[in-house]
Design brief:
Elements (H helix, E strand, L loop, with lengths): L2 E7 L5 E4 L2 E2 L7 E6 L6 E5 H6 L4 E2 L2 H8 L11 E5 L6 E11 L1
Antiparallel strand pairs: 1-2, 1-8, 3-4, 4-5, 4-6, 7-8
């Protein structure tokens, strides 16, 4: 599966659907989760844009968990965190794996 669908949620009401991974349709373009330049949003952006704009990125926790999971264990679907919420600024944002995309 080229990418994961992650739901970002905070108790303050902030919610985003994020899609990190690699597109097999658009020239194998990579996508990462990153805070916007002003830090007030969390988005899925092209990897090269995140690097060129020096955006703060968030590693895909589902991918990290899968790479470190013993193969007989069931995969974890979260929650992972806490991360800084771009809306309220607190360390209260959590991520859940909700699916795959390709």
């Amino acid at each position: 599966m080229p990418g994961h669908i992650l739901d970002a949620k905070c108790a303050c009401g902030f919610e985003r659907k994020l899609r990190p991974g690699v597109s097999t349709v658009q020239d194998f373009q990579g996508y990462v989760m990153a805070y916007s330049a002003n830090g007030r949003d969390l988005l899925t952006v092209k990897t090269q844009n995140a690097e060129s704009e020096s955006l703060v990125t968030v590693k895909d926790p589902y991918l990290e968990a899968e790479l470190n999971r013993p193969w007989l264990e069931n995969p974890s679907h979260g929650p992972w965190g806490p991360y800084r919420c771009p809306s309220c600024g607190k360390q209260s944002l959590q991520l859940w794996h909700t699916g795959y995309w390709d």
